[in-house]
Automatic annotation (TrEMBL), chains A, B, C, D:
Name of the protein in question: Iron-containing alcohol dehydrogenase family protein
Pfam families referenced in this protein's UniProt entry, alphabetically: Fe-ADH_2 (PF13685)
Transmembrane segments: none
Native source species: Ruminiclostridium herbifermentans
Names of required cofactors: Zn(2+)
Example GO molecular function: oxidoreductase activity, acting on CH-OH group of donors
Keywords linked to the UniProt accession: Cytoplasm, Lipid biosynthesis, Lipid metabolism, Metal-binding, NAD, NADP, Oxidoreductase, Phospholipid biosynthesis, Phospholipid metabolism, Zinc
Classification via SUPFAM superfamilies: Dehydroquinate synthase-like
Residues engaged in binding NAD(+): G98, K99, V100, L101, D102, T120, S121, T122, S123, S129
Length: 354, 354, 354, 354
């Protein structure tokens, strides 16, 4: 019935804390899973493989059927692996960065198995969302997969990940401000229907961290908040049944940069800059965003990356064509003009973009 | 299967904004509902009845089958009304404070109809939770009912509600800090299993508001955040399938006061004081709580209520017996002793309690 | 989304076999339940109490918190019991006939606990449906409750129940033929929407038994088929989210008789006769129904009950007023006239009704 | 919770009747779908394309985005098509035999779109089940896909399909008798857990048709019953979350024949013969099966197919290796010996197998 309460899916296992990789086995077993297949991203096994595999295989009732070192997101290569996995597998575990998580998540989807997500860096909300990004017919494509059954994030691991991943995560989080604003803009222009609960979660996810006191971004309490926020962002998309609560015009700029550039920067890095830019165009909460990206050291960090204003200019023009069915601020020409002017005149943008 | 992703229910309609009572009809119709029964709390019809009923009945496809002025939460009186409601009713709407919302919510549950919650004051998270508090066999009892299908909160209305309701809402929100801490304490003592996602939502709900800048508590942006936070708290309970993420030792003190006192204060008023007390016992985030309750004017407000330390002392001793199956800080004697000492020695508590 | 697959609920425990009362404990434990409250219908404890309670309490992990001898379906009396049940109860078990099952089912609904249905006679499909029939404001009323979490039917027990219960069960089963026909009639008259899957289950439930060979109705294989059919009928209603697949004009006549008569006969007895009558009015599969009710001995049995044609005549006129929103054959005057003529002229009806 | 009622998915659209292809558009629209992509099996567009496409495109709000003539079940070929389907598609429709239905069903699964199944022949229960059979790494493989959102079967079309499809459908239906018997056998040997509700549906599905009177198998009423039975069989598998209720030792023989033979016969043809054979091995309801397969003309039909006893003998030996984790009658050597003796000595088998 249209009048039944809306049902959504959330992870059954959710553990976010320091030094918990040795508990992975207990978490899995407690959820009733006994036989798993584990995918490690390149180089990840060396770092965490022993700890994780030991915590699994030291349990008498729990066992690892197969392990892979894998980072390939071309669907034609995923397929044969997905269907070669033993029929008695009860769950797929992915450990590492974005690529292996996307690969393992899609394999879990194809085999109708629960997926357990163990990110070793949290540069975006992919580890907690139902979508994934694969290479299909040679092109990077966002496809539907499955909501993670489990999310296990060891903050001590995130802490020791390269700074670029932390800054990318912060860039992705702050983007919810402009994304949600674009979403309401679409609704006001009859181009979309906002799911208010999803919008609320997305806003809460960013507000709780941008308003939080901290001494340095690598401190445990701050990173835990970041991971929680990225997780809520992933769930907000699931509730909305689309990416709108987490991805607006700022994401379109980043997607456009991915097309334009030989070597794009990390998703969240590009998104963070685009978020500051779009908040100025939207004239919405830009002081807050500026303060957050300055205080955290995000701006200083990206200043060293030699990114070019020309590329952003091209990306702004390309942005609306990425998702022609949407109607964000950048789908309106005057806003694209405004955005390009800001690239030239805004002090911060002038400083961080060459 | 135990390994299926966890499904939860969330409201389909969720609208939180200023001056939206005139849109109630559109929200309902958009959700596919055509025939409704409306319950107003005492005195509420005079204030908002015309606006709401007009917005409903002005729609050609939408109609009001019956309206009630009702504030009685004795189950023996609810029953006959519930089963006298016309069989073609498609939804039950409750408008007003805690009592009418609980009554209407329970009637919706008994008739297996969607419930639409329109609080005119948000002194606690009842408007967004699946539970309700009724008088059964003469005693106030918390019973299971149904998750609201719709939540519609007009911030302009909340703004004009007496300050005691706003302070009560703030007191209920801040209590998530001690409640979640008690929950993890229970888990560490093998007396409960924390649902990490519910705990995260509860923490986000309070963190986003206690860290938020504002000039006065009655400003729209601040109240919207409060309402969103109370809503998330209601949902967190639904995810946990119990009240633990939103209700710990601080709530036990308030429940105990309800038993002890002739005229208890508003739930959230009592809870707010008890939260500050318990945060000192738990030695967890008490500076944050103290700052929040001071800055918002909560402490100054309650100072005028002539509440008595003796009653709190009795309540502390009674607290563990309220929920004997739980294991909060107050279920341990030394913590009860510590709490009672704080009543006598803590400067703020000495000031606000006679 | 309106385009999501339709989700329905089915029992987790379903055991239908001979001499299985001693396994009740194992079935419950296997489903993860540890603490139960048991309701016995009047006189049922003497017959089966020891066997059932022993099978529960002999399990070390499983225990009975409370037991009741209960047959009262007045809601004002159910209420206090429902809310006095210990908070650590994990399931409600009902053992006996229609009344105790309805009472226990409603108590389970009020307490949001799983309900386990153990009928000792299967005179209708109540043991497997989500609805129940209570006395509210002094009148017998059908209310929404909860789908049984478990259905356990010991065929050996059903076998030894008085014949009237078996014939009543057969009468209720055969009624699916006229009920489904009425439902399609309603759809053709734009007064309802048939859920084709529910209709199919209802038809299968009756077809599998009316076409089945047997030597006597009390043989195990035949009774197992009857119980399975009644179970499917209960589930068909749940899928349709209303009683239409299992209850048409023939049920309206029975409901009307309940109002008219001092001492009505068993539901299924009245329904069976009304089904034969209505199949003649509908001119649909009446030979099949006549053969089934003759061969099973149903007609011979009811002939001894001294039921009166006059009462059926009154019931036919009253029938459409019982459910004014429906549009069955009996909602059309010419069919009521036809039906009343048949009471006078049909050989079988003349024989079984005085 | 383990104690929540079990939720299953059933089709939202289910229409089984004669001459209903012209209503396909109305059925789809009524379910809230507006834009569809249609896959026709080879040669199917010529037969039914115009009628179906007209019924869709004649609706102003409904439109066909793309149509394909397609019968390829190699996953590497499905992939690119699946992801080239326009992003505004709201449902995938498959029209034809087993291959196109499997292909379209999998494409719907990959794109997370509802699948509408319009079989033009019903030689097995694939049109109503969530699984499908694809060619992966060159081998025929059963994979998880999605439960059909809609099932539309035009009996007039089924009536005119070649007899082999009807006999294959009957062979697949009767196999539920041996399949369910094998399932209980597995449970008694602690090798499986029977889902009693799934087993009941499977039994009802076959009992309602084997006990049904008819003059010839091509008559509408009989074929409708067959289609309903195959549909229930598909749903029974979905409830059990595996194929056990619909597929036992008799299916293993058929799968083995598929491996052995250059040109296997239709699935249901092989299964029907194997069912008769296994019912003799199980000594369970073989008279009923013999009568049904004789009366319907199944045995006479297969007699003309020149199938060889030697192949069945090889298949019997190979059978247990097809699903090593199961424990059917054929997983026990003495039963394989018994089965092979029957091939040589049973009069009917001697007649129909060369």
């Amino acid at each position: 019935m249209s009048t039944s309460v809306h049902r959504i899916e959330i992870p059954t296992i959710m553990e976010v804390d320091s030094n918990i990789l040795e508990n992975v086995g207990s978490y899995i077993l407690r959820a009733g899973i006994k036989k798993v297949v584990v995918f490690f991203g390149d180089g990840i096994r060396e770092l965490f493989g022993e700890k994780i595999l030991h915590s699994i295989n030291s349990k008498s009732q729990l066992s690892t059927l197969e392990t892979y070192d894998y980072d390939d997101i071309r669907i034609e290569n995923l397929m044969p692996i997905a269907f070669s996995i033993p029929s008695n597998a009860e769950a797929i575990i992915g450990v590492g960065g974005g690529k292996v998580l996307d690969a393992a998540k899609y394999i879990a989807f194809l085999r109708n198995l629960p997926f357990i997500s163990i990110p070793t860096s949290t540069s975006n909300d992919g580890f907690s969302s139902s979508g994934c990004s694969l290479i299909i017919n040679g092109r990077r494509t966002s496809v539907h997969a499955v909501m993670p059954f489990g999310i296990i994030v060891d903050i001590a691991v995130i802490q020791n990940a390269p700074m670029k991943f932390i800054y990318s995560g912060l860039g992705d989080i702050v983007s919810k401000i402009t994304a949600v604003f674009d979403w309401y803009y679409e609704e006001n222009n009859k181009a979309a229907r906002v799911n208010d609960f999803a919008a609320m979660l997305a806003k809460k996810s960013v507000n709780s961290i941008v308003r939080m006191p901290y001494t340095q971004v690598t401190e445990e309490f701050f990173l835990k908040e970041m991971v929680d926020s990225l997780t809520m962002s992933g769930i907000a998309m699931q509730i909305a049944d689309n990416s709108a609560p987490a991805s607006g015009s700022e994401h379109l700029i980043s997607h456009a940069l991915d097309k334009i550039l030989e070597k794009p920067q990390l998703h969240g890095i590009q998104v963070g800059i685009a978020t500051y830019l779009m908040s100025l165009v939207q004239q919405h909460r830009y002081e807050r965003i500026e303060k957050f990206l300055s205080d955290t050291g995000f701006f200083n960090y990206v200043e060293g990356l030699q990114m070019r204003a020309d590329d952003f200019e091209k990306a702004i023009d390309l942005a609306p064509t990425i998702k022609p069915n949407r109607y964000t601020y950048l789908h309106v020409e005057e806003n694209r003009i405004k955005a390009k002017e800001l690239l030239r005149n805004n002090e911060i943008l002038k400083r961080i973009l060459k």
